[in-house]
Amino acid sequence: MSAPLQSASAPHALLRPAIAIPFVLVALIWGSTWFVITGQIGDVSAHWSVAWRFAIATPAMFVLALVMRLPLAMPRRAHGLAMWMGLFQFCGNYTFVYLAELHLTSGIVALLIGLMLVPNAVLGKIMLGQPITPRFAAGSAVAIAGIALLLLNEAQAVPTGARISGNVVLGTALALMAMLAASIANVIQAGPSGKGAALVTLLAWSMLYGTLANLGLAWLIDGPPVIPRDGAYWLGTAWLAIVGSVVTFPLYYDLVRKLGAGRAAYNGVLVVVVAMGISTLLEGYRWTPLAMGGAGLAMAGLLLALRARSVPPAQ
């Protein structure tokens, strides 16, 4: 995410209501969206579900910009950034997430996306010169080992005689592609191109470009749209569009500005906890000893890596 490398906030900023309330709210909302997505990919194709989500979210984000009295005009280079953000964040990332949830439980997909810190660090070093500390590398290795155990548990749960663990392998590949697409969007936002535009305005244009890409992709792959008649489907879509996108993205980016990228990223750990909890309650996720050990390693590694990311670079 676009943010200063260091936090200028007080050591206990997370305890302040102005920070703590949106921090927890974003985590609870994003933690819930992983499960809501599972209701969007049954009778309707994943591609059209993503398109409907952002077809609703995009005008709402422009309305939010107008309500906040923000200019809708942006410099040309900011539009270029918005196009890439739309392609990677609001098209590629979400398309791969929806497809991944056809094969893996929502909590496992959320945990895989939580590994986004790794490509963020690598791309940040290559493109922005941000350092990778030994503690971050160690934490990432521990988290990857934990997730490997979780995926092994998923593979073992596949019934004997099924196509080995093909669904698990495919779901993992799709989730990793989603993670990489989001990571690319995060890193390019850290460049200078977006500084001439208000945050909500930049998000609105990014969603517009992403929506156009989603509509074209859905039509190309799945043909003309079939409008769902299920009210529950549209309630879920509205939740994902308005609450899960329009409400949360501005709140989260404001947290990034106030806390810095490293400390704000703790939100992602809380999102995973919420998502795994919901998956346990509503999807019947089974916590075997292997799964518990993998989740413990993954969370410990992510916390270690995130703690390292908040360390300022050497001068």
UniProtKB/TrEMBL annotation:
UniProt keyword Membrane present: yes
Keyword Cytoplasm listed: no
Pfam families cross-referenced by the UniProt entry: EamA
Predominant place of localization: membrane
Regions that span the bilayer: 20-38, 50-68, 80-100, 106-124, 136-152, 164-185, 197-221, 233-252, 264-282, 288-306
Domain of life: Bacteria
Localization of this protein: Membrane
Keyword annotations: Membrane, Transmembrane, Transmembrane helix
InterPro entries: AA-Vitamin_Transporters, EamA_dom, EmrE-like
Ranges for domain EamA: 23-151, 171-306
Membrane topology: Multi-pass membrane protein
Family, similarity comment: Belongs to the EamA transporter family.
Protein name as annotated: DMT family transporter
